[in-house]
Write a structure and sequence with these properties.
This is Protein Thf1. The protein is mainly alpha-helical. The longest helix is centred in the C-terminal third of the chain and has 54 residues, at about 230-285. It has ten helices and no strands. Mean pLDDT is about 80; it is low at about 1-60.
């Protein structure tokens, strides 16, 4: 990535369209464990020898399947969603399900900021603000997480980032504060001292912090990744994927807007023609008086 500014949300010029399947890195498949326990016991009848009694018990880990998550979403939000939005939403919820149920997954506010940023960009221009919020709640609840926590943490990080500069942003290890503590915890876990699962939502969250802090120097991202123990090459790659996705979404929304405008014009023309026909029919139906 040449510079952080090249990834501005308003500069969406890339032409390739990656599948939303790429929005997860190194996802583990769902793991089901089956355990069997053997209980031995002897018993003797009048004409039998000791026998081995085997009790088999099987159990599976209580993990939701992709189908469960998608069904939960459909139950929570039953109204139709325009295909330009729904296609990407369905891809995202499948991939976020895989992130959510990875063995190393642990929720963190930077991940939440990244998802909220992606969601708000995706749903920008949605016909109804109320429906957009309802879809967000249904989506997060389907993953058995808290939509209010996502929004609150994203807002907290955005407010913090707006008060930062390029230098103060990367100095969080030496500072005290709520957000600084969050970043320190991430750095510690990413450094191998706890569970940490990198994802492209996390990369977008980092970029959002840089954008709000007006940290346009290319070296800032490199230093921030180093402080967080995150591989910068992965972040660069994933931000390019995100930019390309947004570029194609903008194009798709423009096509949808043009389609809606054409359909509206056709309806108006049909309505106008119908009114004209009704007026003609009314005139023809009235008695005509001709003077002699």
């Amino acid at each position: 990535m040449a510079a952080v500014t090249s990834l501005s949300f308003s500069a969406l010029t890339q032409s390739s369209f990656p599948s939303a399947r790429n929005l997860v890195s190194n996802s583990d498949g769902l793991r089901f464990r089956t355990s069997f326990s053997l209980h031995y016991g002897g018993f003797r009848s009048s004409n039998s020898s000791p026998r081995l009694v085997v009790h088999c018990m099987s159990s599976t880990s209580d993990l939701a399947t992709v189908a469960d998550t998608k069904l939960n979403f459909l139950k929570a939000y039953k109204r139709p969603i325009p295909s330009v939005y729904n296609t990407v939403l369905q891809e995202l919820i499948v991939q976020q399900h895989l992130m959510r149920y990875k063995r190393t997954y642990r929720y963190d506010p930077v991940f939440a900021l990244g998802f909220v940023t992606v969601y708000d960009q995706l749903m920008d221009g949605y016909p109804s603000d109320e429906d957009r919020d309802a879809i967000f709640r249904a989506y997060i609840n389907a993953l058995k997480e808290d939509p209010e926590q996502y929004r609150a943490d994203a807002k907290k990080l955005e407010e913090w980032a707006r008060a930062q500069t390029s230098s103060s942003l990367i100095e969080f290890p030496s500072k005290e504060g709520e957000v600084e503590g969050i970043l320190k915890d991430i750095a510690e876990r990413a450094g191998g001292k706890g569970s940490f699962s990198y994802s492209r939502f996390f990369a977008v969250g980092l970029f959002r912090l840089l954008e709000l802090a007006n940290a346009t120097e290319p070296t800032v991202l490199e230093k921030l990744c180093a402080a967080l123990n995150i591989e910068k090459r992965s972040v660069d790659r994933d931000l390019d994927v995100y930019r390309n996705l947004l570029s194609k979404l903008v194009q798709a929304k423009e096509l949808l807007k043009e389609y809606v405008a054409r359909e509206k014009k056709k309806r108006e023309e049909r309505a106008g023609a119908q009114k004209a026909n009704e007026a003609i029919a009314t005139c023809l139906g009235e008695p005509q008086y001709m003077g002699l």
